């Protein structure tokens, strides 16, 4: 790492050339023998950490104390207490400031235990009792980028080496070291500090001395990159520390300014304390504070940004009364809506989280930071550089809030029981997240395409009017509070105008049925219960007293929650986006089925409260305007009228249909994973006559799964392992000798046939690679009625060529989808 830092700061020296040394004449011009210029001193530095072109900057700068805070502690800027919790926040204090904070919270030698968490990842050193931080001379206001993501052991080793570098350099200057300070107007000036081994301490040494002096204090370093969300392992470290401490322990968090990372640490501590004290599910505090920031607080998150680029609440108002007719709120970000309803206790846990965030918002409200940066990003008159900064920072705070929601749900589950003595299960947050790929997929969607979460939706640009019937219906939708059917959610009938239907196989109630030519493989869009019965009867799955039905393996590929009411499928939608699919990319079968079970409970609860009826929605087409609209209507419902897909197919099996049902969520938006291929091809059943795949529209990602099972059936035929398959596959040739492969006469034709560089490279390294590709190409062509996988790649590549240079968001989307399509073929 030192070599990389040296290469960036002093490339000539890193390559073996001597740097240009400042002349000795300039150095000796000072009366005390010390150089006048900080640049000269920085250029001469040669330590492992305090290297060339680095400086030591005072951590306390003018204006670091927020004047709106009601309390001041000398030497400890921005000290505050979280109401009703033994949790405190502070900027990086002096050594005297640390002692003052300990006294302020009621501790003393042999008194109340204190657990201090230092959240900084940048190296800090105490000189004569005051904190200094390592910076580059050309960027004295900014943290050094090469330390991003550093762990505790490394940063503490660096601080120990920094101390050695300072002592070594001080020998050259009669026991003094040059440091820099910041004036009230942001100017930098240098000064000399006399040092020795006693006046120079690392943070670890400072707290060790306090402990040796009899103070009941424990110290932990949890390095977090400024402006970014904590890693899952950081959550685990903090949770374990808090859960293992005694009940009367006071928890103190600090970063540089005591704002961003400190606030996040305080929120995590309060959540864990709430869980330990009251068990699960974690609930909203009774004296919940309002979702507003105290006067003078800031939502901007950077600890050390310059005044020139700082985005504060004084320059940009977070929310206005009328943003082109509608005030965009945090719940208008679909991602947050989806993750809240993904978990059993998501709504309650997020309410508790929001209450905690508000209690910890003396300097920063994490929710409001997201909205503030979104506001800046959507101001077209702001220069592009500022908008890009706002987008990146807003995405970081959105991910931070997103992770806190997931962490709250983790605390509200049995996974955390063992950490607080309430059960045997002791699963870390990191492991818990690893078992939920749908959450990981949501997180990556923030990083890959943040702009889509911050753009003002088209439906919010126009004056906000009810488009869904009368005000009573809209009020009912907004008052919903189920764990899945929550505020602003509607149940929309699955069938819609313009839906694709089959041209060959007509099954009433089962749109877009398709059969792969030469294989016992079928697909269909989401059917009604009657449609499912007719489709299974068509496949010969219905048993009677004399003949057993042919076994059909049904694989449901839908990633969104579906429920049947009166035999008709309904899907979950948002009131303001009723036609947008609410997929959970990466979700597993058990999780989506759990969501559907909870959705059913929400429906039955609402039916009981409303006297046996339910507000539903459907899409209607108006020929005169040539447009579709979503309208609400009332339906009388009994408990037996509501079923989940798993219950529907279980009932069909009880009625004598010879079926095996599995839920394997898979769509085009999902990454191609080897585990998905295994799960699909493992559905192969020697006793099965047919394979039926159910998806949202019966078109798209379903073609990928059909191709997989066809490849599996092909392999069994070729190796002679399946007599059933041999009798069902017709005599059409579906393999092409390698010698007969055509030579493409144009790049367009080569791309259409999938002859991309990575695909061709794969065929060269595989045994019988060209033959395998030829076989797969034929299967892809046969499955094209349900979606053409190769054509998807070509479509996205052509679209990418047409994207304007300034449309980075759309370019990123097309690149992402094109790569995913390519990986499916790969």
TrEMBL record:
InterPro entries: Prot-tyrosine_phosphatase-like, PTP. It comes from the Eukaryota. Pfam families: PTPlike_phytase. Residues 291-316 are annotated as: Disordered. Residues 307-316 have a biased composition (Polar residues). This is Paladin. It comes from Gossypium armourianum. The lineage of its organism: Eukaryota, Viridiplantae, Streptophyta, Embryophyta, Tracheophyta.
């Amino acid at each position: 790492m030192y070599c990389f830092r040296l290469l960036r700061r002093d490339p000539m020296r890193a390559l073996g050339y001597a740097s240009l040394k400042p002349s000795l004449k300039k150095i000796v011009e000072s009366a005390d023998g010390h150089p006048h210029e900080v640049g000269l001193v920085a250029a001469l530095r040669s330590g492992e950490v305090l290297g060339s072109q680095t400086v030591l900057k005072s951590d306390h700068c003018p204006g670091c104390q927020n004047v709106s805070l009601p309390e001041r502690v000398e030497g400890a800027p921005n000290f505050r207490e979280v109401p009703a919790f033994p949790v405190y926040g502070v900027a990086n204090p002096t050594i005297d400031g640390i002692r003052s904070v300990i006294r302020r919270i009621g501790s003393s030698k042999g008194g109340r235990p204190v657990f201090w968490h230092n959240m900084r990842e940048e190296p800090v050193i105490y000189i004569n009792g005051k904190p200094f931080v390592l910076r580059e001379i050309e960027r004295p206001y900014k943290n050094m980028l090469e330390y991003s993501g550093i762990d505790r052991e490394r940063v503490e080793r660096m601080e120990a080496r920094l101390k050695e570098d300072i002592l070594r350099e001080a020998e050259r200057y009669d026991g003094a070291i040059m440091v820099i300070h910041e004036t009230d107007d942001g100017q930098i000036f240098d000064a000399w500090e006399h040092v020795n081994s006693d006046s120079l301490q690392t943070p670890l040494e400072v707290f060790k001395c306090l402990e040796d002096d009899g103070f009941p204090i424990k110290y932990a370093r949890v390095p977090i990159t400024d402006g970014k969300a904590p890693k899952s392992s950081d959550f685990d470290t903090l949770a374990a520390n808090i859960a293992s401490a005694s009940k009367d322990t006071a928890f103190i968090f600090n970063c540089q300014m005591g704002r961003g990372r400190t606030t996040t640490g305080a929120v995590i501590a309060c959540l864990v304390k709430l869980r330990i004290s009251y068990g699960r599910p974690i609930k909203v505090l009774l004296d919940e504070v309002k979702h507003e920031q105290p006067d003078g607080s800031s939502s901007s998150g950077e600890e050390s940004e310059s005044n020139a680029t700082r985005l504060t609440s004084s320059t940009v108002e977070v929310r206005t009364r009328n943003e082109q007719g509608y005030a965009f709120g945090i719940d208008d970000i679909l991602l947050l809506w989806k993750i809240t309803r993904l978990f059993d206790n998501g709504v309650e846990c997020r309410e508790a989280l929001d209450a905690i965030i508000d209690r910890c918002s003396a300097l920063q409200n994490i929710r409001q930071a997201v909205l503030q940066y979104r506001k800046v990003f959507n101001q077209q008159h702001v220069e592009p550089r500022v908008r890009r900064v706002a987008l990146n920072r807003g995405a970081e705070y959105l991910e931070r809030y997103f992770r806190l929601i997931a962490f709250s749900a983790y605390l509200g589950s049995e996974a955390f029981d063992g950490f607080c003595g309430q059960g045997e299960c002791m699963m870390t947050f990191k492991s818990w997240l690893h078992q939920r790929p749908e959450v990981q997929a949501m997180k990556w969607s923030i990083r890959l395409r943040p702009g889509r979460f911050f753009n003002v939706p088209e439906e919010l640009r126009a004056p906000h009017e009810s488009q869904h019937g009368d005000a009573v219906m809209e009020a009912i939708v907004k008052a919903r509070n189920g764990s899945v059917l929550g505020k602003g959610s509607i149940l929309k009938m699955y069938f819609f105008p313009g839906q694709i239907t089959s041209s060959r196989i007509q099954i009433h109630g089962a749109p877009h049925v398709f059969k792969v030519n030469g294989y016992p493989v079928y697909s269909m869009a989401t059917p009604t219960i009657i449609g499912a019965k007719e489709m299974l009867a068509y496949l010969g799955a219905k048993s009677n007293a004399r003949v057993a039905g042919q076994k059909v393996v049904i694989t449901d590929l839908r990633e969104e929650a579906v429920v049947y009411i009166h035999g008709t499928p309904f899907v979950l939608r948002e009131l303001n986006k009723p036609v947008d699919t609410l997929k959970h990319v990466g979700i597993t079968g058990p999780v989506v089925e759990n969501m559907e079970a909870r959705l059913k409970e929400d429906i039955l609860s609402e039916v009981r409260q409303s006297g046996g009826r339910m507000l539903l929605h459907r899409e209607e087409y108006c020929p005169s305007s040539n447009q579709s609209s979503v309208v609400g209507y009332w339906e009388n419902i009994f408990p037996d009228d509501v079923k989940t897909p798993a219950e529907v197919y279980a009932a069909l099996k009880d009625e004598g249909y010879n079926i095996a049902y599995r839920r394997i969520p898979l769509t085009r938006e999902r990454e191609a994973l080897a585990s998905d291929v295994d799960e699909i091809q493992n559905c192969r059943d020697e006793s099965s006559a047919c394979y039926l795949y159910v998806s949202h529209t019966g078109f798209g990602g379903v073609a990928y799964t059909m191709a997989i099972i066809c490849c599996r059936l092909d392999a069994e035929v070729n190796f002679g392992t399946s007599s059933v398959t041999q009798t069902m596959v017709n005599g059409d040739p579906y393999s092409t000798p390698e010698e007969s492969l055509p030579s493409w006469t144009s790049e367009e034709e080569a791309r259409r046939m999938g002859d991309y560089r990575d695909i061709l490279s794969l065929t060269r390294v595989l045994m019988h690679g060209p033959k395998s590709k030829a076989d797969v190409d034929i299967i892809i062509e046969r499955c094209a009625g349900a979606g053409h996988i190769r054509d998807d790649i070509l479509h996205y590549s052509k679209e990418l060529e047409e994207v304007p240079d300034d449309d980075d968001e759309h370019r990123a989307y097309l690149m992402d989808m094109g790569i995913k399509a390519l990986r499916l073929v790969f």
